[in-house]
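INFO  loader      accepted 1 record
INFO  loader      residues=168
INFO  predictor   begin
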Amino acid sequence: MTSRVIQCQRSSDGSTIKLLVELQGGQQVESVIMAYDTTGSMGLKANLSCGEILEQLIHASSLAKVRNIVFMGMGEPLANYSAVRDAVLALTDPELWGLARRHVTISTVGVLPRIRQLHQDMPGVSLALSLHAPSQELRCSLVPSAATWQLGPLMEVRDLLLLEAPGE
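INFO  predictor   done
INFO  writer      dumping tokens
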């Protein structure tokens, strides 16, 4: 292991555990274990490697059974596509963690080319769109990248993917 847990906080009701993990380069990232069914503003510091992503799962698994994985929070998962894809493939590999793809969710602000690629590379993985606001104007004020990934084209891709979804 190239990372280590330097802090662990549990909520008073035990439903949430937050880990502060120090990576080999000295950067710190947070992992959150949520034991319930519901689901930043610090700016980009670095992209995690596939190994760093998987090590968060190893740390979390030592504290609680992990049944669902959500890529979200600090940063845009689809801006780090290769590492996220490789981590998802490891998480869903029956010889490794063996999670069902439907138990893995990638949350995105709407990186359109990567949404299409995700649909091809990882069928069955859930996609969550973090729109942040009901209008493009408000969305742009809250999320700078929303100016690039606008609601209209995003909804068109969403509709197309819903039409192509098997069994839907």
